[in-house]
Amino acid sequence: MTEAADRPTVDRILVEMTIAAPAAAVWDALRDRDKLLQWFGWDAPSLAEEVDYIFFQHTRPDEGAGILWFEGVPDRFEVEPRGADHCILRVVRASPAGESWDGIYEDMVEGWISFVQQLRLAIERHDIAPRRTLYFEGHAKPGGSGPIAALGLAGLRDVPDGAAFVADLPTGEVVEGMAWHRTPWQLGLTVPGWGDGLLIATDKSVKDTAPHGRGMVILTSYGLSDTAFAALEARWKAWWDAHYDAPPPSAEACS
Counting C-beta atoms within 10 Å of the first and last residue's C-beta, which end of the chain has fewer, N or C? Predict the structure, then answer.
């Protein structure tokens, strides 16, 4: 039997999006450390180290071609100009030929999608301004579900990108904004009340250790006062802790 590593590879486009910004600005957001901190990942003590490890220690940038190659993983970013004020951003993975990925949840793929959608919001609407971002992850308690349904957002899965929405969340707040993006596993919504921020809710595949569902949410905010941000964090933490348990150590490593 031929091993996967010996098989020919084909490119699989994980993300392809148009960004309303010049290609040079998007490339700069991929190469400037301070700007990376304002869209990649979420607030964490290790964020600066993660940015350095992923985007500088283990990349091969080809600015002329607009390609950022990642070493150690089969992924790359491509930035392609589309006129003076727009560009195409792609996240591409080289996968063994003949592999089928339909319907399979992949942590890294969904993570890249979330992060580049955070980049699009940051560059199109905030000029990569400082943000504050909350992250919650866990396994649903008995009787629960993945975050999209638990937050009452399942009905928004079919709302087209750019359409307005209003949602009465179980966290005790009513949010309204615009549908931003979706995949079979995640849903992104802009929230003007968070300083034109972004809510990304992601369901993960059910597994034996999480029979009631599991997932994560990322909340990005801009310009909130310390008091308003602390209140946002307290609301979401109280709701999340009441409905989700932390995943066991290393439980998500092979999700």
Answer: N
Q: Helix (H, G, I), strand (E, B), or coil: what is residue 26?
A: helix
Q: What predicted TM-score, i.e. pTM, was given to this entire model?
A: 0.89
Rounded Cα distance between 14 and 111, Å, is: 11
Residue 170 CB neighbours (<10 A): 12
Asked if residue 173 lies in contact with residue 160, where contact means CB atoms within 8 angstroms, the answer is no
pLDDT of residue 5: 46
Give me the residue spans of the domains in the chain.
1-128, 131-255
Beta strands per DSSP E along 159-225: 164-169, 173-182, 186-191, 197-204, 214-221
**Would you say 240 and 171 are in contact if contact means Cβ atoms under 8 Å apart?**
no
Class of domain 131-255: alpha beta
Q: What is the pLDDT of residues 170-192, one digit of tens each?
A: 999 999 999 999 999 999 999 99
> What is 1-128's CATH number?
3.30.530.20
End-to-end CA distance of the chain: 26
Q: How far apart are CA 221 and CA 132, in angstroms?
A: 5
Q: How far apart are CA 70 and CA 80, in angstroms?
A: 17
**Residue 250, pLDDT score:** 60
Rounded to 5 degrees, what angle do the CA atoms 27, 33, 34 make? 105
In a 3-state reduction of DSSP, which class is residue 39? coil
d(C-alpha 154, C-alpha 190), whole Å: 16
Q: Three-state DSSP class for 140?
A: strand
